[in-house]
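explain this:
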Amino acid sequence: MKPMRILIPVPSYGFDPTEAAIPWKILSEHQYDVRFATPLGNKAKSDEIILTGKGLGIWKSILRARHDAVEAYYEMENSDSFSHPLTYAEVHEKDFDALFLPGGHDKGVREYLESPNLQQLIVDFFRAQKPVGAICHGPLLVARSIDPETGHSVLYHYKTTSLLKSQELLAYYLTRFWLKDYYLTYPGKTVEDEVQSYLVDSRNFLKGPFPLFRDSKDHLNWGFVVKDRHYLSARWPGDVYHLTYSFMSLIQEGVD
């Protein structure tokens, strides 16, 4: 029996290392066949500021990726699937069993969030009701995916979360004197505000408990995940373990 194929699309530069590498590592360890896609099929690079902490100043220990994520990122970077990604144009829903969408703050993620190819792919996954997991800015890409048959976002009648407005603005205000608007991917509109604008009811956006601690394999309950049918969403790197294990359970539901 062939291993189930999971697709993780990322931008050429700027994705969050934790939100891609931790899912890759856990899924790979559980024998899933994880494939990557980039805009032109070139090997991607994560956000260097988040990966190394360079430029984060006194907030480095709080805002940079944790050691486990950095270690997983360098493992992922050396993997064959990450080194030889597909292009956005050549990935199709029929070739994969599930879709995982990481986030990232750097302006480089815009080519990912604005990709017509990825938005159509997401529409196809929702029509097929295949598992889709999204974290941080990932739900924004999902929300922007408009089903031409309905004229609405695929999330129109779904519950979701995403990077919270409070989180995005806090990181911005802590670092704006030297990083300018680095933490605002789209200055003038937060991720939470835009995601809510695509929903039939703003109450379908769930914020969860205050995101104080980052979760881990041993503390999944510290993470927050929203599940609605075949769709899972989470807010920040502190939810990534809970999200990944929930994602695997959701995939397995379709197998059993």
Q: What stands out?
A: Residues 165-179 form the longest helix (15 residues). The two ends are 14 Å apart (CA to CA). The mean pLDDT is 96.
